[in-house]
Every structure is written in C-alpha cells, then in structure tokens.
Design goal:
Number of domains: 2
Shape: globular
Structural class: alpha/beta
CATH architecture of the largest domain: 3-Layer(aba) Sandwich
Number of strands: 8
CATH class of the largest domain: Alpha Beta
Radius of gyration: 19 Å
Strand content: 5-15%
Order of helices and strands: EHEHHEEHEHEEHEHHHHH
Distance between the termini: 45 Å
Oligomer: single chain
Helix content: 40-55%
Bound molecules: nicotinamide-adenine-dinucleotide
CATH superfamily of the largest domain: NAD(P)-binding Rossmann-like Domain
C-alpha cells in the first residue's frame, strides 16, 4: 500500500515536529488540533524550524517552502477521512487517546493505519478499542523530532507484519532509524530514561546537588548531551509525571513512583520550556 497523505492528531510539541519531517519526506500532511490557536501555534513552530534550517544552510528555501505547502492545519476531524496513515500525538492520557481512536475508527476507511506516538501507554490496549488491531502500531518519535534520528516502533499483540513493514518504510523515508520493541509500559526508551530523570529530581529535592551540579555530573561524567533536569524541562514535566504513573500502574513497582517535587511542580504549572519555567527559567526572547 502506498502512503500519500498522513494525518497528525495534535499540533503540539511532537505533532508539529512529526508534521514537519513527514512533509519534508514528500507526504501530504493534515494536522489537526482542537482550537485554532493550537493549530496556528503548531504551524508557526514548523515555519520557525524550517526557517532556522534554511538560515543554517541545511536546506534550500524552495524545499522549505514546498514542505510547508504540504501541511494543512485544521480543527475539523473529518478532514482526515481520506488519510492513509494517522499518527496521533495528543497529550499522554489513555482515556483521551481511546476517545480519539474511537472517532477515527468510525471516520477512516479500513485500509488506514493508526499509529500512536504515546510514550508509555499500551499499544495493544489502544488498538483493542478499534476495529483494526492488525493496522495499529506504536510510532514513538523523539523530541525534537526534526533533529532526533530514532523512531521506537512498538508492535501491539495484533500488529501485522505488513503494518510494521509500511511503518518502518515510512519512518526511514522521514530520515529516521527504527528500533523495534514489544509492548510493555514505557517500552525501552522511557523504561530506562524516566527512572533516571525521577532520581535526578529526588537528588534535587533532597539537596544532594543543585540543578546545575546534577546536570553537570551527568553531562561531563556520563557524556550525556543534556542533563536529566534540562531534559525533563524539554520533555515537559507533566509528560514525565504521566509516563511514570503509567509505568507505576503497569508494573506495580514503587521504583516508578513520581517524585513529590515533580508532582508539586506540575501542580504549580511549572512544566518546563513550554510554560517558560521548569527546573530552569526560559524568558521569552
Ligand atoms: P503537547 O501538550 O505539546 O501537545 C498535545 C496537543 O494535543 C495539544 O496541542 C492539544 O491541544 C492537542 N489535543 C488534545 N486533545 C486533542 C484532540 N482530541 N484532537 C486533536 N488534538 C488534541 O504534548 P506533546 O509533548 O506533543 O505529546 C504528545 C504525545 O507525544 C504524548 O503522547 C507524549 O507522551 C508523546 N511524546 C512526547 C515527547 C516529548 O518529549 N514531549 C516525546 C515522545 C513522545
């Protein structure tokens, strides 16, 4: 099956990044969000990101313009009815995702493949709410999508070989490398990453180190490109908390319990870069 048009549900951090790499790979993209201001924000993020790539000489202006021209923003879900492949990137909430898939399942033709960019929610469970368990897969892009090479591809219990093959081919066309994993809470990426971030937050809460010393230890001592607290700010602290909760519920193991300081910051609305403050401050330029 040839994929021509990709639908993206959610124009946030991940949704607009996926829209950009899909458009650059030559796909037509329909990006849907629930309010016009979110659609506009997503489109603006793509415009900015492409502009930066042109400025740095990584891309020619006509290629950037052509990619932008292939993305259409919308608030109307039924605009996505003719998509061959849909990638959902709404917030990390199982109930909301199930609702979105139930709507899409009614709307889309039988051949349409559904992918979720979920960081931790069971692909098998999300697929079970649709009539297409064989055409349902996890396609976990990394943040920031245009720069990060990995797509963690998660096969649910019913995912067909054909769906996995199409998804892998599409990710490769977007310039990504696919690592295939099976469906357990947090998959591989977040199962390993989130306990590290959580532990770094405990270190901060307990005064073991300042934010700078914790991040410096991991950057210079472990050769990580970013410290765990900087990375948490980039991912979004609400997303970090949610993923930890999914793993805590899924395994019943206290090692995944979100740190109280993380929960306090989320309650305060200090979600990281997207709100201008998290473990660090991000003044508006
Ligand atoms: P975000 O909050 O930046 O964006 C989510 C967007 O979804 C918002 O614009 C919101 O308005 C929109 N939305 C909510 N309900 C919707 C609906 N019914 N239809 C269409 N749009 C709707 O979140 P994000 O960081 O982009 O995360 C999205 C998904 O990607 C989550 O599942 C998250 O776990 C996963 N993910 C996030 C990261 C990361 O670093 N942020 C990395 C990998 C995967």
């Amino acid at each position: 099956m040839e994929i021509k048009t990709i639908g993206i549900i959610g124009a946030g951090t991940m949704g607009n990044g996926i829209a950009q790499v899909a458009a650059l790979a030559g796909y037509n993209v329909l990006m849907r969000d629930i309010e016009q201001k979110f659609v506009d924000k997503g489109m603006e993020a793509v415009r900015k990101s492409l502009g930066k790539a042109v400025e740095k000489g990584k891309m020619a202006q006509p290629d950037a313009d052509a990619a932008l021209g292939r993305i259409k923003g919308t608030m109307v879900l039924s605009d996505l009815k003719d998509c061959d492949f849909i990638i959902e990137a709404v917030i990390e909430n199982a109930e909301l995702k199930r609702k979105v898939y139930a709507e899409l399942d009614k709307l889309c033709p039988a051949h349409t493949i559904f992918a979720s960019n979920t960081s931790s929610i069971s692909i098998t469970e999300l697929a079970a709410g649709t009539s297409r368990v064989d055409r349902f897969i996890g396609m976990h892009f990394m943040n920031p999508v245009p720069l990060m090479k990995l797509v963690e591809m998660i096969r649910g219990l019913g995912t067909s070989d054909e769906t996995a093959k199409i998804t892998k081919g599409m990710a490769e066309k977007m310039g990504k490398t696919v690592a295939e994993v099976t469906d357990y809470p947090g998959f591989v990426s977040n199962r390993v990453l989130m306990p590290m971030i959580n532990e770094a937050i405990y270190c901060l809460m307990e005064g073991v180190g300042s934010r700078e010393s914790i991040d410096t230890v991991m950057k210079l001592g472990m050769n990580h490109p970013m410290g765990p607290l900087e990375l948490a700010d980039l991912v979004g602290l609400d997303v970090v908390q949610y993923i930890l909760e999914v793993m805590y519920a899924g395994f019943g193991d206290p090692k995944y319990r979100p740190c109280p300081l993380l929960k306090k910051m989320v309650k305060a609305g200090r979600l990281g870069r997207k709100t201008g403050i998290g473990f660090y401050e991000y003044p508006k330029k």
